[in-house]
């Protein structure tokens, strides 16, 4: 979790933990029941959601901070996860805190 923003693929993660990518994928699925790529994206998006709620950082900076350099891809994945665009998510929480 400490290096989630630098790990963008199974190969990156496997190299970081010194395991074969195929073995890591099978082991992760067996131990958690989750797909490793899906887990990593959900984790990054949960960090992003927290930053959107609690900071005024631009969405592009938040995307980069969680390790997703393509803002369009970040927005697409965020919307898939939370059913709302990142800026609208932020606005929703700003309105609730008033």
Could you explain how this protein is built, in words?
With 98 residues, the chain is mainly α. Helix content is 70%, strand content 0%. It contains six helices and no strands. Helix 3 (36-54) crosses helix 5 (71-82). 16% of the residues are buried.
The sequence of SSEs as H and E is HHHHHH
Cα radius of gyration in angstroms:
15 Å
- Portion of residues in beta strands equals under 5%
| First and last CA, distance | 32 Å
- Global outline: elongated
Query: Which residue ranges are poorly predicted, with pLDDT under 50 across at least 5 consecutive positions?
Result: none
User: What structural class should be given to the helix and strand makeup?
Assistant: mainly alpha
> Can you give the helix content as a percent range?
over 70%
Summarize the biggest pleated sheet. none
Instruction: Quote the average pLDDT.
Output: 91
Number of strands: 0
Q: With helices defined by DSSP (H or I, 4 residues minimum), what is the helix count?
A: 6
Defining key terms:
single chain; about 100 residues; mainly alpha; about 0% strand; elongated
SSE topology sketch:
Elements: H1 10-17, H2 21-32, H3 36-54, H4 59-65, H5 71-82, H6 86-96
Short structural summary:
The protein is an all-alpha fold.
